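Quick question, first post here. What does this chain look like in 3D?
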Amino acid sequence: MKKFLYTTLFTFLISSTIMAQKLDKMQWFNEPLEWEILNPTTFIMHAPAKTDYWRITHYGFTVDDAPFYYTTYGGEFETKVKITGDYKTTFDQMGLMLRIDHKNWIKAGVEFVDGKFNVSTVVTHNTSDWSVVELDKGPEFIWIKAVRRLDAVEVFYSLDDREYKMIRTCYLEDNCPVQVGIMAASPDGDGFKAIFEHFEVKQLPDLRRLEWAKKQK
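> Answer (accepted):
Ran it through. Tokens below.
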């Protein structure tokens, strides 16, 4: 019986990894005026002017008004997306977002600062922090990936969707649902065109449940 339980659970967890997210099954937080699902793998939005996500640190203000197109996942997962932006103004930004509520969220992607491309991660637990990796030259596009494992999220970037470099490991509350999706913002500018391709979320085998199942053998 124990062997049966373990085999059944293991098969269920592994099979869940093949599920990917469909763009037309997602929902909006701060829906922009202009957006389009171009085809099953391509999503376009115009990031509205004077929008952003930030809480308190350094600037003393809180903003929570940029477009975020998301779905909700529990447990452990991997999400990634290819992003291409027509960046114009300092702080124009786009990428992935993982959000529990307005005080607990992560955004990761490209942030355009003083004419340079930065791979950027903002982690917020009541107050925001910001870390960047400056790229030598501005690529036409970039891939961003985030992996949630237990109470941690690892953030990666890639120029080819094959070789990924990790840029951040950070805390995110464990054992609760997370809104996962794509965002774009133009805090100081008049907005810009943001293209997202091949967005996906894949459920990962739950490490704790696998360990529990092994003990039942």
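Residues 2-215 form a domain with the Jelly Rolls fold (CATH 2.60.120.200).
The chain has a mean pLDDT of 91.
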